[in-house]
Design goal:
The structure is a single chain. The protein is an all-alpha fold. The chain has a single domain, classed as Orthogonal Bundle (ABC transporter involved in vitamin B12 uptake, BtuC). The longest helix is centred in the N-terminal third of the chain and has 39 residues. The protein is globular, with a radius of gyration of 21 Å. The two termini are 38 Å apart. The N terminus is likely disordered.
Length: 352
């Protein structure tokens, strides 16, 4: 049967719903504007017209470049463009993962690191820094981030089921164990390695290359597309297990699929750029205020919002001071007041 107007989003006014459909397009335009603005700013400012000319030069011109144009080409194509694409990808990954986790756990204060991803990645990165002869830092971080979530899921499974409270507690325990092991490695590390570990833990896009973008962007894109495919099931999961089962949704299967996908993108992002806090907590809330709770709209919009937020934070991190500020510091400074505001408003409305 066809869907009636009153059934658009659970009885929501169809005109309001159609108005919210404009937000994804608006956010995409804002993302393009943020990327263009970020490409023109830095220690070496480039006018926006020159940025556009530099981006189009490899396509429409094969002539030798002048000295100024050659410098612009190096700055834009070798330094800023891969960094901006990485910031956009990481922000989209963390924001979408946060939206998925909040929907699966039915808890607005859940973030992508709830199952121990960050602690596992930190331990793997510390191992890679202390013992660089085996694998790369990124590979170590990705392996141990995935291992931490696998341990959490294994510990949280009880008699063939995975209760949400048990899974969250298992994540807290797993994260504590890996954090303790990170502390042991920091205690054993020499000064240079210790500084590198601490710097990695604060997150940043300092060493981003096209190779990093080439493996992270397709992986995140595929996972986000699959998560979007299951956005309707995520809507049903957010209603609760009993309601989901009554609608014919196998809660265990779909929850596992969504958690695995969200974990993969989170582990991939964290293993590449370090631990960046608050993005997966803030962006789903901000997006929900704009487009509502329907994950069919909220999930892609949250990904775009995450990309915008990360580009803005990265631009601030590399332009606010003479030395670059770790981006984890910027996101934490912006995130803490937001959480305080969220708690106050939720408490006043009786939602917390």
């Amino acid at each position: 049967m066809g869907q009636s107007k009153g059934e658009t989003t659970g009885g929501e006014n169809p005109y309001v719903y159609r108005g919210r459909l404009m937000w994804p397009l608006t956010l995409l335009l804002a993302l393009a504007a943020a990327a263009a603005f970020a490409m023109s700013l830095g220690k070496y400012d480039i006018p926006p017209a020159d940025v556009l000319r530099t981006l189009l030069t490899p396509i429409f011109s094969s002539a030798d470049l002048s000295a100024a144009a050659d410098l612009n080409h190096t700055v834009v194509w070798s330094l800023r463009l891969p960094r901006i694409l990485m910031a956009m990808t990481v922000g989209a990954a963390l924001a979408a993962a946060g939206a998925v986790f909040q929907g699966c756990f039915r808890n607005p204060l859940v973030e992508p690191y709830i199952l121990g991803v960050s602690s596992g990645a930190a331990f793997g990165a510390a191992l890679g820094i202390l013992f660089p002869m085996f694998f790369s830092i990124q590979l170590f971080a990705f392996i141990f981030a995935s291992l931490a979530v696998a341990c959490t899921y294994g510990f949280g499974r009880v008699r063939g089921e995975t209760p949400m409270l048990t899974l969250i507690l298992a994540g807290v325990i797993t994260g504590s164990v890996f954090s303790a092991m990170v502390s042991i490695l920091k205690y054993l590390a020499r000064d240079a390695a210790l500084r590198e570990v601490v710097f990695w833990l604060m997150g940043g896009f300092y060493y981003t290359t096209w190779e990093d973008v080439a493996w992270l962007l397709p992986m995140v894109g595929v996972c986000l597309a699959i998560m979007g495919k299951f956005s309707w099931q995520l809507n049903v999961l957010s209603l609760g297990d009993e309601e989901a089962r009554s609608l014919g949704v196998h809660t265990e299967v779909y929850r596992l699929i969504l958690i695995v996908l969200a974990t993969l993108v989170t582990a991939a992002a964290v293993s590449t750029v370090g631990i960046i806090a608050w993005v997966g907590l803030m962006m789903p809330h901000a997006t929900r205020m704009l487009v509502g709770p329907d994950h069919r709209l909220m999930l892609p919009s949250a990904a775009v919002m995450g990309g915008i937020f990360m580009i803005v934070c990265d631009t601030l991190a590399r332009t606010m001071a003479s030395a670059e500020i770790p981006i984890g510091i910027i996101t934490s400074i912006l995130g803490a007041p937001y959480l305080f505001y969220l708690l106050r408003t939720k408490t006043q409305t009786g939602l917390v």
